[in-house]
């Protein structure tokens, strides 16, 4: 199945009216299913509550979260202090699943790299990763807002 980049981005963007959760990702040619992920539940309001107890202790630690009942995945990464970033795990170039390295996100398909804020640090991708607002309760729960 061939799909244009523009169509892909349209289909993968979370619109304000509801979640569009990427059944198309699994059909993109050249994609690699890879890293181990943790299944998470998304509320009807588009909220994920993720318990980080025992994980995400140090800046740069990351978890790949698989949104239940979809093929969509989000990378949750600990930043400095008690802040976190949540990024769509799909490369904005042609839709391959990114691999988290120690200090950046790597695309195994054509070599794009993104920093932990989702900004492109090496092409051919030119668009940043879709990011989602997060809140940390100061204990063990990170809330990710998909809408
Ligand atoms: S799909 Fe990621 S660089 Fe091409």
Structural overview:
This protein is mainly beta. The protein has one domain: Rieske Iron-sulfur Protein. It is 5% helix and 31% strand. The chain contains 1 helix and 11 strands, in the order H-E-E-E-E-E-E-E-E-E-E-E. It has one helix at 5-12; strands at residues 38-40, 47-51, 62-67, 73-78, 84-88, 99-100, 105-106, 113-114, 120-122, 131-136, 141-145. It has a 7-stranded mixed β-sheet with strand order 1-3-4-5-10-11-2, with no helix packed on it. Mean pLDDT is 81; it is low at 1-34. Bound molecules: FE2/S2 (inorganic) cluster. The site of FE2/S2 (inorganic) cluster has 12 residues, from loops.
Task: Offer a quick outline of the entry.
The protein is 5% helix and 31% strand. The protein is mostly beta strands. It binds FE2/S2 (inorganic) cluster.
CATH architecture level-2 label: 3-layer Sandwich
Mean pLDDT: 81
The proportion of residues in beta strands is 25-35%
Largest pleated sheet: 7 strands, mixed
Total of domains: 1
Going by CATH, what is the homologous superfamily?
Rieske [2Fe-2S] iron-sulphur domain
CATH class: Mainly Beta
Summary tags:
147 residues; mainly beta; seven-stranded mixed β-sheet; 1 helix; 11 strands; globular; binds FE2/S2 (inorganic) cluster
């Amino acid at each position: 199945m061939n799909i244009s980049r523009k169509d892909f981005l349209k289909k993968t963007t979370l619109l304000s009216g509801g979640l569009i959760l990427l059944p198309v990702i699994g059909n993109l040619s050249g994609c690699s299913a890879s890293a181990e992920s943790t299944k998470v539940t998304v509320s009807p309001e588009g909220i994920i509550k993720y318990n980080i107890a025992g994980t995400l202790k140090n800046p740069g630690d990351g978890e790949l979260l698989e949104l239940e009942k979809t093929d969509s995945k989000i990378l949750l990464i600990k930043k400095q202090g008690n802040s976190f970033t949540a990024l769509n795990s799909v490369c904005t170039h042609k839709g391959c699943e990114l691999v988290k390295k120690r200090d950046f996100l790597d695309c195994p398909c054509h070599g794009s790299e993104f920093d932990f804020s989702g900004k492109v640090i090496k092409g051919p991708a030119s668009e940043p990763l879709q990011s989602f607002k997060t809140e940390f309760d100061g204990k063990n729960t990170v809330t990710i807002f998909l809408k």
